[in-house]
């Protein structure tokens, strides 16, 4: 797959005959808002209905189309496309395509396809990427020709996948006999593995979905590795590394393009299929080779010394003392508190280490809900509670400050460029919790809903409020003695057939009063893949520009790039960044993975600035929550009388879901939504504009704290104030 994430139009060179195609469903955008009214009609192409052995091979079609890119180089770009046997390939020019210099490959048969007749756009969702295409010359005949042929090829390809036995597909592989023979050992029968490959689902054959199966625990790693090489015409080699304990042997799998000497993928595993790369048991000492040939997990690039730099440390200076190891950021379930006079006390808040109930299995036909909403903003679509996790969007904003120690470190670092390094690490760390959370969505807050989080162990106090319902906007404010952090965010969620794209809008603000520093940045785009089937996974991509202004000292800037995954997940979750001075000179380089760690410098001498905390045991059964997330919805007895009744922890549908009562949660969710619609109707009938209680509009139109929450909490207390009934 290409690193480009969207597509555009073509001018064909052939005029193939018009075939008879599988029926499609026509739908209209809802007219719930003026924005929806501007949307034109969509046509959703259905999957193949039944099998047909005599579908005629469609003629190939080629020409220029416009392909949309969101990042980098936003906008529509000309690309040369070739549609043949249900596979759509493209390159920058027709000459590049003939020479094999492809930018991407799309299996139309495995894609969800939709089109807009009015704007003559074609959308293809391959699960890995969402492609948006448009005909180059806006002629109706050209658009209809591409639509017709895409339908025909899609039907042909679906029939081919369904009807052809896997043995024939393997026999038709012209390069199968050119694969390099594997190094075998007496305990590893590779012929049995190849036989097992034939039993794998044929859908795994596609390059676009292979990289997610590498991480799927239900599939044998060796089988998947071999299958990848068979189906993608790669050479493979197994190299014996060493003998471990308990008769366990460790091997390295490398995949090569034919006649190439440089591996495009390397995986290290043991004979009991334990994946060693990415876990602590194995450390790799890196040579001076490029990072592209290094095993996948960045956590294992360097030797065991990983330092969390102190405020006075420099890039080239770090203590060997174990107290600087980055594991100091690990979570703990004990919070040490102080008394009202600020003196240290012996009290400790014991926090729970797991939720009351495991996640219930979904029994929802998502396609029936989403099929009529392709391309729409899903924030206006009611979803069943089974799709939720027992946390709220306001609490998800609080999750972003889990690694607030990075801000404390920045506030005590005098070098402005190193301060920016820690700010960048903090901005990246906000995405770490999402890695295991693609399976569920947070509850949408009710207008006026609030959430507070007072963490004396972390040195901050946090408040959030839902300040707008249409459009939905959540605002938060977090403060400590070292920093003030705040943001207002709204998300635009769009479903494209197999994937859901989440485009955030809003700006994050950070102040370090000790230096007179202000920082601003915006979030990058997120995309959840495999919405309808398979193991859901999330990626983030785009550029995050951190702007810095100050009343004293030098100005520093930073750009962090979240790389879009390429085929085979060779660069999954990677980020790269640069810190520059006011003249644009690069001062520091950053790289890492947003779900694992961020490093300062260049390998092999890079230093770990931030590492994600270890996940709790059995986290997969508990919504993929981190330890910090587990604690967010806990309602201690001593806290109840201090909170306003609008606090998320009192919300009954979310509480019931946390306790495993799906039916009760769904009933309460519907009741709460009815109450919200009724309050909205009353406001509209009386021409009343809603005003948030704890946030106000700033001069730049953002939402900021009005500074009243903690004062009202203390005196007179929320129990003595008139609080709206939300549920």
UniProtKB/TrEMBL annotation:
Topology versus the membrane: Peripheral membrane protein
Coiled coil: none
PANTHER family recorded: OXYSTEROL-BINDING PROTEIN (PTHR10972:SF150), OXYSTEROL-BINDING PROTEIN-RELATED (PTHR10972)
Subunit text: Homodimer. Interacts with RRAS. Interacts (phosphorylated form) with VAPA. Interacts with OSBPL6.
Alphabetic keyword roster: Cell membrane, Cell projection, Cytoplasm, Endoplasmic reticulum, Lipid transport, Lipid-binding, Membrane, Nucleus, Phosphoprotein, Transport
UniProt-listed SMART domains: PH
UniProt feature, compositional bias: Basic and acidic residues: 26-40
One GO cellular component, as annotated: endoplasmic reticulum membrane
Ranges for domain PH: 58-155
Main location: membrane
Any one GO biological process: bile acid biosynthetic process
Annotated protein name in UniProt: Oxysterol-binding protein
UniProt key word NADP: no
Family label: Belongs to the OSBP family.
GO molecular function, one term: cholesterol binding
Function: Phosphoinositide-binding protein which associates with both cell and endoplasmic reticulum (ER) membranes. Can bind to the ER membrane protein VAPA and recruit VAPA to plasma membrane sites, thus linking these intracellular compartments. The ORP3-VAPA complex stimulates RRAS signaling which in turn attenuates integrin beta-1 (ITGB1) activation at the cell surface. With VAPA, may regulate ER morphology. Has a role in regulation of the actin cytoskeleton, cell polarity and cell adhesion. Binds to phosphoinositides with preference for PI(3,4)P2 and PI(3,4,5)P3.
Ranges of Polar residues composition bias in the record: 12-25
